[in-house]
Design a protein that fits this description.
The chain is α+β, with helices and mostly antiparallel strands. Helices cover 26% and strands 27% of the residues. Strand 7 and strand 8 form a beta hairpin. The N and C termini lie far apart (92 Å). Mean pLDDT is 89; it is low at 319-333.
Length: 534
């Protein structure tokens, strides 16, 4: 292709490389110069024009882009008509993008005029989503280079084909039913874009024999089996791998160089893939589990070599349990400053009318019990979030020296109070103990032990009390998790965040069942010796 300034007499048939503006004349970049344009340029006194002129053997940009796009597009793709040297490729159906990386590299090295860009390999795509683009840089390119680039399919979409998913949850005494229910909801949401759904769900004890029987039971009905363990897989001889072997299956690989997602198990029972999910798979945030799950749903094999090749790019997010400092993380002082946050804004809807926080036990309002427990732990400060009947709640805490924060959005659920309280904390607070205002039996000693167990340098960013294998409240949260808590919505606290960060949690033994005492109904209040305030 000839390119550059030429006398006007030689410009006929060329393409304007730079817009031409003169009195009474505008020729846009890319315009082809015909007889009318020649006359207009001459009338404007233009003697020289910068043009691109095709030479013998050249192919125009649109024709070249269209030819290459048609050649590289494999199954599951459609190609839009080329325009200004660009042809875009779109997914014709939902699936996983499969690319020939070596072939694409070779194409992009044929000639600097020819480029092909795609989404990342194995990206999950929706029908109609743009997945690749061919762009011809100049206005024309040698036809033999186009022929070399149009060697064959390099990009395709593997459609989702596995639709029937079975989910098995193993249970230990400390795993609450609500955690399992949340896991099922998150999993169903993950499967929906692939057109898959949960067709069978079982809950069995966290034991190899029980799980082996469950695997054998669900495999005939499923295209894929997901196992969520009550405890993370620590070894090939652990419960989930052992159960798969006992059922007649095999483990392909244990572990993956993707974080979060390290503790993933990939195996199969017959022709049915079996995934042992890492703890982070209980959270909706992207993790290594997603990478493997989506490939399997598209019927693509996931081998040991595939998994071990995921390390580059496998660090998906800031892992809060990692003690190394990050530029965007507030450093923790040698002696951390820990505050308490008392959530006292709720409407007590299950109480049937009265504000339960003002009900009394031993003649003291429930909310005052909670605030006194926080104050007695010797923390940096105590912040109380108010909302429903805020003045009455403040009155019940008169004289204690708490700082109050009003939550005008309290009717939208517990999460709004949590956000209001976190937003009100000073920047020098390293961690906060979140107390519920309706848990009157929590002691100052327990709050102090939660604070003492906080150790970010050792990966202890979250501290929870445990009794008889069940976690309870209050919960201490390190500042590295404040951002995650600020994203929580609805009438929930940090349960989902807690479930998605097993590696950052430290447990403190509770001495009494006060950590589970939840006074939501008049019956529960009466059973605890409480009285509704007159």
């Amino acid at each position: 292709m000839r390119f550059g300034p030429v006398p006007l007499a030689e410009a006929r048939g060329g393409i304007v490389a730079h817009a031409v503006r003169a009195e009474g004349l505008v020729l846009k970049k890319g315009a082809r110069i015909g007889e009318a344009e020649m006359a207009a340029l001459a009338a404007a006194g233009i003697e020289t024009v910068v043009v691109a002129i095709a030479e013998p053997g050249d192919m125009g940009e649109d024709a070249a882009a269209a030819a290459i796009a048609a050649a590289v597009a494999g199954e599951g793709l459609r190609v839009d008509p080329a325009f200004t040297g660009r042809a875009n490729l779109f997914a014709a159906e939902a699936g996983i993008l499969v690319v020939d990386r070596d072939g694409i590299d070779r194409l992009n090295r044929i000639d600097e005029a020819i480029t092909l860009a795609t989404l990342p390999a194995f990206a999950a795509v929706e029908a109609g989503e743009m997945v690749a683009t061919v762009k011809i840089i100049p206005y024309a390119v040698a036809a033999d280079r186009v022929q070399a680039a149009a060697a064959g399919p390099l990009v395709r979409v593997a459609p989702f084909v596995r639709r029937r998913v079975a989910v098995i949850s193993t249970l230990l005494p400390g795993l609450a039913d609500k955690v399992v229910e949340k896991t099922l909801r998150v999993t169903a949401d993950r499967l929906e874009p692939a057109g898959a759904s949960i067709v069978r769900e079982l809950r069995v004890p966290h034991a190899a024999d029980a799980l082996a029987q469950a695997l054998a039971a669900v495999t005939p009905e499923a295209d894929l089996v997901l196992v969520f363990g009550a405890s993370a897989i620590a070894d090939r001889r652990d419960v989930i791998p052992a159960a798969l072997g006992a059922a007649g299956g095999a483990v392909e690989h244990l572990g993956m160089p993707v974080d979060p997602g390290n503790l993933l198990m990939v195996g199969a029972l017959g022709d049915v893939p079996v995934l042992g999910a890492p703890g982070c798979a209980r959270s909706p945030k992207e993790n290594g589990f997603d990478w493997v799950l989506m490939r399997l749903l598209a019927g693509l094999p996931v081998t040991r070599a595939d998994i071990t090749g995921m390390g580059v790019g496998g660090l998906l997010m800031e892992i809060v349990s990692r003690p190394q400092p990050r530029e965007d993380v507030v450093p923790v002082a040698a002696t951390p400053r820990i505050a308490a946050l008392v959530l006292a804004a709720g409407r007590s809807t299950r109480m049937g009318g009265p504000n339960k926080l003002l009900a009394t036990i031993d003649g003291v309002p429930l909310v005052r019990h909670a605030a006194e427990a926080a104050l007695g732990a010797g923390l940096a400060e105590v912040v109380v979030v108010t909302g429903h009947q805020g003045e009455a709640v403040r009155g019940a805490l008169d004289g204690l020296g708490c700082r109050f924060v009003a939550n005008p959005d309290y009717a939208d659920g517990l999460s709004t109070s949590l956000k209001a309280g976190l937003s009100a904390l000073p920047d020098d607070i390293d961690a906060v103990v979140v107390l519920l205002g309706d848990m009157p039996r929590v002691s100052s000693a327990l709050v102090a032990r939660l604070a003492a167990a906080y150790g970010p340098g050792a990966g202890r960013h979250i501290v929870v009390p445990v009794l008889d294998g069940r976690r309870g409240n209050p919960v201490l949260w390190g500042r590295r998790y404040f951002g995650e808590l600020m994203k929580v919505t609805g009438d929930q606290g940090g349960r989902a965040v807690l479930a998605g960060a097993p590696e950052a949690v430290a447990e403190v033994a509770a001495e009494a069942d006060d950590v589970h005492l939840d006074l939501d109904t008049p019956e529960a209040l009466a059973a605890a010796g409480g009285r509704i305030a007159p």
